[in-house]
Design brief:
InterPro entries: ARM-type_fold (IPR016024), DNA_alkylation (IPR014825)
Largest sheet: none
Pfam families: DNA_alkylation
Radius of gyration: 19 Å
Number of strands: 0
Distance between the termini: 57 Å
Helix content: 55-70%
Strand content: under 5%
CATH class of the largest domain: Mainly Alpha
Protein name: DNA alkylation repair protein
Number of helices: 15
Number of domains: 2
CATH topology of the largest domain: Leucine-rich Repeat Variant
Organism: Faecalibacter macacae
Shape: globular
Structural class: mainly alpha
Length: 236
């Protein structure tokens, strides 16, 4: 019954005028990375409100049910509730249960926003505090685009804790991945790393700037001074 309540709450917030916009933005056309996704046209802030209301009432089984749907907002709201469950729990065993559940559902965490709003808050946190970095390296070796993105974006939590070596290690594993979504994610994490330690970023770029895809390099350079941006871009 709680799943039906959540679905009803989301449908009540739908906006038909936003549906076509979201479908284009999340690339749901034939052959695009979001093919098959459908939308209700609900803003993320409104989804967060629903997640806040229901997260402590749903089980992992019910979250799994919501993740099974092609409606994008069902899956994002489900993940927002999962994040809330993880963050509110002080029980390491339950956190491990959530991590295992998260890893079992990666086929449904299959768009960049679903990855980016959930992975570092759950998997990144757990891997950092429990010294379980191997989960991220295993995902980085996956053939699946979204699992690779989960691996690199999860390092955001390590960056927040100024534990930076893992960032460059995982970037290097997929530096020349063919998909632009990986180029953006790699460059984003390099940029965030550079905000914590600019010297570490420039040392990485001294060695790798010529090999980085242009999108990754542009993202990585965003917070550097213009002179350094110009220098590294000229290396391409």
């Amino acid at each position: 019954m709680i799943v039906n309540e959540i679905k009803t709450a989301l449908h009540d917030l739908s906006d038909a005028e936003k549906i076509s916009v979201y479908q284009r933005f999340f690339k749901t056309g034939k052959g695009e990375y979001g093919e098959g996704d459908t939308f209700l046209g609900i803003t993320v802030p409104n989804q967060r409100l629903v997640a806040k209301e229901y997260y402590n009432q749903v089980s992992l089984k019910e979250i799994k049910e919501l993740l099974s749907f092609d409606i994008h907002e069902y899956r994002l709201t489900a993940l927002l509730m999962l994040v809330a469950k993880y963050e509110k729990s002080k029980d390491v065993n339950f956190q491990k249960e959530i991590v295992d559940f998260y890893l079992s559902q990666t086929s449904r965490i299959n768009n960049w926003d679903l990855v980016d709003t959930s992975c570092y808050k759950i998997l990144g946190h757990y891997c950092y505090h429990l010294n379980e970095e191997h989960f991220l390296f295993d995902l980085a070796k996956s053939e699946d685009l979204w699992e690779k993105r989960i691996a690199i974006v999860s390092t955001m939590y390590f960056i927040k804790k100024k534990s930076l070596d893992i960032v460059t290690e995982i970037v290097l594993m997929n530096m020349n991945h063919p998909h632009d979504l990986m180029h953006k994610a790699n460059g984003w994490m390099l940029r965030e790393m550079g905000k914590k330690d600019e010297e570490m970023l420039t040392l990485f770029l001294d060695v790798n700037a010529t090999r980085l895809p242009r999108t990754s390099l542009r993202y990585a350079l965003e917070k550097l001074i213009p002179e350094l941006k110009e220098y590294y871009m000229k290396l391409k």
